[in-house]
């Protein structure tokens, strides 16, 4: 009987991408991939540690796997495994911990462990790593959108953030590999490619002597024949240069959507966070992008309750966010991460204050998202048809390039095609319309 493996993913898009690649590696080694709720010979938990919730959820899932099949090999990888291998190994049931740079070796490590020959703690120092670990580019059949990882690591060391310690320094994937993977994905029938990474705006920084950055790469990808849409993951404000703006604005297949993390709308807090811009510079950037690309969707991440954040600072964040016209925001409650400078700061914010600030910022975010969606009513928009709408099979669902979900009547045969939809209504931030 074939051996079986089950994978659970916590956290970000990069983790999801890498889990799909790990699943492909197990398949290549003859394993059958089963649902995580099923009995499996090997369980892999790809963890997250960006906040304490990541750690907590990771531990829960590990315990669940060990209850399902106490005889299974339980492997823990990802950011929590990388930063706290000892803590992870102490969780009952854990057999093997693998760091973030050895995901491509996971099947070998599992098999070596099963034969009683492998290490139990395979995590080593990530800070010394200097090359991009190649993994198979995962292809989930039948989807319209594919993710493509172009870069690993981060050198920014923002005061709150554990990720540089979990992912190591910036390593960019060679452009020829990125381009050939993109071509393969297009060949396989994907209409949309989403560029992911830990700090994609740092793309190329580690290629000494070459003039290669994210704008350069986007320019080349956008020109690939047959690529209907190219979408960018999160880009830091200081990484958005003219070359990138030019590449996004001049190629109609590059989505008019940028996710630009603001983190705080107060200058003192931004400085304490170690961010390299102030609110004026951020607002100017947004203004410039909007002037060049009217109607573009700009979304953002904001942390509430960073140490030292007073009500006044928070009010400044509300004002900056209000003025930004964001098409949506993700709100994070600050979580102290051991080993980061902010965790040592003395004026930590009380949990109930974080909770309240988070609630009011989420409310503002929802209002802005609704406003942005409302502006689309009456327009004719291009929508990439993705799948039947789960709650009503008579409707199809797809997204605009600005990443708004659109529902409309139509035939399932349209899947994967770009259609023009007349937008007639909006509920929260979902659009409804009819194909023209
Ligand atoms: N606490 C809360 N949120 C955090 N983020 C990063 N580190 C922390 C932390 N310690 C958020 C940032 C980042 C997003 C991916 O996670 O907003 O943009």
From TrEMBL:
The keyword tRNA processing applies. SMART domains: Elp3. GO terms for molecular function: 4 iron, 4 sulfur cluster binding; metal ion binding; tRNA (N(6)-L-threonylcarbamoyladenosine(37)-C(2))-methylthiotransferase activity. Its cofactor is [4Fe-4S] cluster. Its EC number is 2.8.4.5. NCBIfam families: MiaB-like-C, miaB-methiolase, MiaB/RimO family radical SAM methylthiotransferase. Belongs to the methylthiotransferase family. MtaB subfamily. Catalyzes the methylthiolation of N6-threonylcarbamoyladenosine (t(6)A), leading to the formation of 2-methylthio-N6-threonylcarbamoyladenosine (ms(2)t(6)A) at position 37 in tRNAs that read codons beginning with adenine. PANTHER family: RADICAL SAM PROTEINS, THREONYLCARBAMOYLADENOSINE TRNA METHYLTHIOTRANSFERASE. This is Threonylcarbamoyladenosine tRNA methylthiotransferase MtaB. It comes from Desulforamulus reducens (strain ATCC BAA-1160 / DSM 100696 / MI-1) (Desulfotomaculum reducens).
